[in-house]
Amino acid sequence: MGRIPQATEDSSQKQWERLAKRMAKETGLSKPSAPSKAAQTMSAKRAEQQAKLQALPDGELVDLMVAYVNGQDFSKANEIKKEIGRRTKEANKGKEDEVKAMRDRVIKQIKQTADMELLAKVSAMLPKLVDAKM
What we know:
The protein has helices at residues 9-27, 37-55, 58-70, 74-112, 116-125, 129-133. The protein is mostly helical. The longest helix is centred in the C-terminal third of the chain and has 39 residues, at 74-112. Helix 3 crosses helix 4 (74-112). The chain has a domain at 49-134.
């Protein structure tokens, strides 16, 4: 519908169907009709493993990750690292929104300020990292 303005929903659907048939004919790719048994069991196994990790407290996760790294089992350590990252992201979500709102407020206040002394003091308070990016 995006390329042809007069296209309707049905014509767009037909276009996709023709493309899918062409892809199947030329490359042999096809959409699976139903999930395989192996895929279903693997999905259940992953869900069970994730539930176990979610049940553990943060301290135990860190200890478990250190044990896996010391034992050179990096695949399991990466799974635990992903769970820790997910928890951290979830915990920081509200804080990120607060920081964004505060930044917007400060930017608005700075734009309305005409006092050079005040702006110089504010600039001195800000981290020097900001100057490096400019």
